[in-house]
UniProtKB/TrEMBL annotation:
This is DUF559 domain-containing protein. It comes from the Bacteria. Keywords: Coiled coil. It comes from Paenibacillus enshidis. Residues 59-86 form a coiled coil. Gene3D superfamilies: VSR Endonuclease.
């Protein structure tokens, strides 16, 4: 296998190991690999044992994600490197290094935004504090886990609905429980949670979903699930949001 062909195959290498990490529940590695701009370069050559081409995998991630993993980057880099070289064993080729860096900002208004931040305009949705299901995308200063979620957020906002994206709900007592639904909507006295499904890496079973959401179900909160494919464009998300509004109106009328 030539060096050029090995580099062209690198995306398949990443697709393979992200599945393996998902099966292990390694959410930080999955978040990095799924959201990074990746590139591979041959950065060295070792003459040992008929010669080995040595490569570096470069992963550039959004600042929101970088900030959440900054203290663990060396561990994550080593974890990805180890997985690559175990799962993608190709004679004469070896991933020597993995380097994770933040994408450079090209925002011409960064000074104004920094001043606004100092004045108290911080990112404030609570979903950012959970470490085992990283929210790596930002829209309007709020964090989300996928582009379909952002489309659905914008659709709900355009309809003038009161809602909370990625809120944290905690139930104390003898058994502590914490959940972060994708969206919590309040309209006409109806409380409804919407989960945007379709993560191709981790799929929650119906039993797992029921166990996770019981604390809100018992309080009378309604639940609806929509596929990410129904929100992969703003237009589709707007149609889905209107369907959710119709469901809320049905719940209101049936009380």
């Amino acid at each position: 296998m030539s060096e050029d062909f090995f580099i062209k195959e690198s995306d398949s290498h990443l697709a393979t190991i992200v599945r393996l990490f998902a099966l292990e529940g390694a959410t930080k590695e999955v978040a990095v690999l799924a959201n990074a701009e990746s590139s591979v370069e041959q950065t060295d050559y070792d003459n040992y044992h008929r010669g080995t081409a040595l490569y570096t995998l470069y992963l550039k991630v959004a600042i929101a994600l970088y900030a959440q993993i900054e203290n663990e980057i060396e561990t994550i880099q080593q974890s990805i490197s180890n997985k690559l070289n175990k799962a993608v064993a190709v004679e004469g080729h070896y991933y020597r290094n993995v380097e994770i860096a933040a994408k450079l900002s090209e925002d011409p208004h960064w000074r104004e935004k920094a001043k606004s931040w100092l004045a108290g305009s911080h990112i404030n949705n609570q979903g950012r504090v959970r470490s085992d299901n990283i929210a790596s995308r930002i829209s309007d200063g709020l964090l989300f886990r996928s582009l379909p979620e952002i489309h659905f957020y914008k659709a709900l906002k355009s309809l003038g609905i009161s809602f909370a994206p990625l809120p944290v709900f905690v139930k104390g007592g003898l058994t502590y429980k914490r959940i972060e639904p994708d969206f919590f909507i309040i309209k006409d006295g109806v409380m409804l949670v919407v989960e945007v499904d379709g993560d191709t890496v981790h799929i929650e079973t119906p039993a797992e979903a029921h166990d996770r959401t019981t604390m809100l179900l018992h309080e009378g909160v309604k639940f609806e699930r929509i596929k990410s494919s129904e929100c992969d464009t703003y237009e589709k998300a707007l149609e889905s949001a209107r369907k959710i509004v119709a469901i809320i109106e049905w719940h209101k009328a049936s009380r």
